[in-house]
Amino acid sequence: QRACVFASGTGSNFDAMMQDKKNAGSIVLLVCDKPGAAVIKKAQDYGIETLVLEPKRYATKQEYEAVIIEKLQFLEADWIFLAGYMRLIGETLLSQYEGRIVNIHPSLLPAFPGKDAVGQAYRSGVSKTGVTVHYVDEGMDTGPIIAQEEINRIPGETEEQLKMRIQAVEHRLYPNVINQLMQNVTEELL
Ligand code: GRF
Questions:
Q1: How much is the ipTM here?
Q2: I need a labelling partner for 68 at 20 to 30 A (CA). Which of 49, 55, 97, 185 fits?
Q3: Is 105 marked active-site?
Q4: What's the CATH code of the domain at 82?
Q5: What's the pLDDT tens digit per position in 145-189?
Q6: Distance between CA atoms of 55 and 33, rounded to whole angstroms?
Q7: Could you report the per-residue pLDDT of 69-121, keeping only the tens digit for each?
């Protein structure tokens, strides 16, 4: 099982995947849609190949995703793991990798989809929030849920403190789920 990670930002989740010995060897590519994003340097430091693209250079999303697919097929990637990839996945990738694209989101979906989920939860005053790992469909943070972990709000904590606790959950949960998904498929094949 070979995996590709799509990320646009800091890459702390990418880092957590690479720190997990069971997954690290399966990750063959980082796809990034933001030249200059910190995650690119992280991938280079780990010796992971990077495909850095500028979506605006492509006339359509289909053309943009076709470039990615060509690379994924060349590397024989089985899975796409989104880790802070700030772009909706289009039909071209979805049809090619049906049931093989997974995302992590910093809330208990379906609550607080989209941007700034931690801030949305913080301001709303909910007593619990958390992290969701889910399959990707055409919507924004809408696909079938694979795993969720709740955390209780601590009275008086700042948004930044809540964010740090959410990130700590993400960094543990995502590598574990990825490991299980890849392991299950490998067992099915045996
Ligand atoms: C994470 O909170 C993830 O849940 C969301 O985007 C953020 C990415 O952070 N989809 P990082 O780049 O992995 O630090």
A1: 0.97
A2: 185
A3: yes
A4: 3.40.50.170
A5: 999 999 999 999 999 999 999 999 999 999 999 999 998 876 776
A6: 7
A7: 999 999 999 999 999 999 999 999 999 999 999 999 999 999 999 999 999 99
For residue 190 the two structure tokens come to 């045996």
For residue 22, what are the CA distances in angstroms to 121, 126, 179? 32, 35, 7
Q: How many domains does the chain have?
A: 1
Ligand 1 atom nearest to CA at 9: 12
- Give the global pTM: 0.96
Cβ of residue 10 lying under 6 Å from some atom of ligand 1: yes
Burial of 153 (0-12, 13-18, 19+ CB in 10 A): middle
Mutate which of 12, 136, 163 for ligand 1 pocket (most atoms within 8 A of beta carbon): 12
Taking the CA of residue 13 as reference, the ligand 1 atom at the shortest distance is: 13
Q: Do the annotations mark residue 11 as ligand-binding?
A: yes
Q: Is 141 in the pocket of ligand 1 (CB under 6 A)?
A: no
Nearest Cα residue to atom 7 of ligand 1: 84
Going from the Cα of 60 to the center of ligand 1, the distance in angstroms, rounded, reads: 26
Q: Is the peptide bond before 110 cis (omega within 30 degrees of 0)?
A: yes
